[in-house]
Amino acid sequence: MLFDTHVHLNADQFEEDIEQVIERANEAGVSKMTVVGFDEKTINKAMELTEKYDFIYAAVGWHPVDAIDLNQEYLNWIRDLASHPKVVAIGETGLDYHWDKSPKEAQKDAFRKQIQLAKEVKLPLIIHNRNADEDVVKILKEEKAEETGGIMHCFGGSIEIARACMDMNFYISFGGPVTFKNAKETKETAKEIPLERMLIETDAPYLAPHPYRGKRNEPAYVKLVAEEIARLKELDYEEVAHQTTKNAEKLFGIN
After folding, report:
1. What is the pTM of this model?
2. Mean pLDDT of 117-137
């Protein structure tokens, strides 16, 4: 029983074989997934998938790379979708200082607006953070994001940043990179995080875990993430699978 808390089955990479991908996930023990929409096209596709599959939930938000395209009309649309019973989070939102499509100020503005929206609709946030630790933590604090809490998605930072986020009611979510041989800091952080504050994800089709690194990721591989967490923390795999699923259900309000 595994919960892939962040997957992009709405990506073009799954257009040809989505049924088989979902079947493999179920066979691997994945009982629930959150498909994350981050622009108009992917949000629409995420909503379609929630209608088709009872074990698929959606998150709706606007990615920081595309922050420059976020307008009031899209924000109103996301607010309307937030009342759908299978929409469980706002995001992914946050900051990405790796790509330069959207200026930093546009990203910060979009991030703040989505935190405010999450507080308004009373849903947790899914946070994307790439090369922007200090600004992400600063904005979360300034906007009082602890009122909603949420997920630090595909976390790869230090234990200090993780603790700052946990203090604001956020879960720390690990994906494929925790399995990479050279991901020393991510592994050390995973060892330190209490299992009760941890989630697992794939971010598929991106960031496939070892031994599939560089290939298309898929939700079945979340099992490899759970196995690595169990190894790092010297716990039973079943305990990691059970507790991370329980954590996700609690955060997303799923019975």
Report:
1. 0.97
2. 98
